[in-house]
Specification:
The chain is α+β, with helices and mostly antiparallel strands. It contains 3 helices and 9 strands. 30% of the residues lie in helices and 40% in strands. The chain is elongated. Helix 2 packs antiparallel against helix 3.
C-alpha cells in the first residue's frame, strides 16, 4: 500500500482527498463524505458537536484502514473525522479508497465508513431549537 492517512481534525478539507488517494496504479478512487444535515427524524437541526477519545479512536481508525488495505489490495486509504462544533452542510467525516479497479474501491469505502461508525469512539451531539441530544453510543 502506498499510504494510509488516519486523522482526527478540527476542519475537513474535501479538496485535498483526491490528491491523497491518487496513485499511478489506481484505476479507481472512491470517496464518501458525511455532512451535517438540516433535519433528523423530522426535527430541525441547528448544529452538531463531535467529541472523540483521540488515542483510542486513532488506533481503531488505523486498524480499520489496514484491514481494508489488506482485504482489497488498496493503494491508498483516507479515514478522517472532524471534532468540535459543526454547522449545517459542513463535512464531518471523509473516507476514501484507491485501488486498481472500481469494485474494490466501492466495497472498501463502504466498509471504512460503516466500520468507523460502529467501532470508533467518536460521539455526536445534535442541537435542535429547544433541546440537545447525544446520539452516537460507541464503545
Amino acid at each position: 500500500m502506498k499510504k494510509a492517512i488516519v486523522e482526527i481534525v478540527d476542519v475537513i478539507d474535501t479538496g485535498q482527498v483526491y490528491q491523497e488517494l491518487s496513485h499511478p496504479k489506481s484505476g479507481g478512487i472512491c470517496v464518501f463524505v458525511g455532512a451535517v444535515r438540516e433535519f433528523t427524524q423530522g426535527e430541525e437541526v441547528v448544529s452538531l458537536e463531535f467529541e472523540a477519545y483521540r488515542t483510542m479512536a486513532l488506533k481503531e481508525m488505523e486498524k480499520i484502514a489496514m484491514h481494508a488495505s489488506d482485504q482489497w489490495q488498496l493503494n491508498a486509504v483516507v479515514v478522517r473525522h472532524a471534532v468540535g462544533p459543526k454547522e449545517i452542510e459542513e463535512p464531518v467525516v471523509v473516507v476514501g479508497a484507491s485501488a486498481p479497479h472500481r469494485d474494490a474501491c466501492f466495497t472498501a469505502c463502504r466498509y471504512l465508513i460503516d466500520t468507523l461508525k460502529e467501532r470508533v469512539p467518536i460521539w455526536k451531539k445534535e442541537f435542535f431549537k429547544n433541546k440537545s441530544v447525544w446520539v452516537s453510543a460507541h464503545p
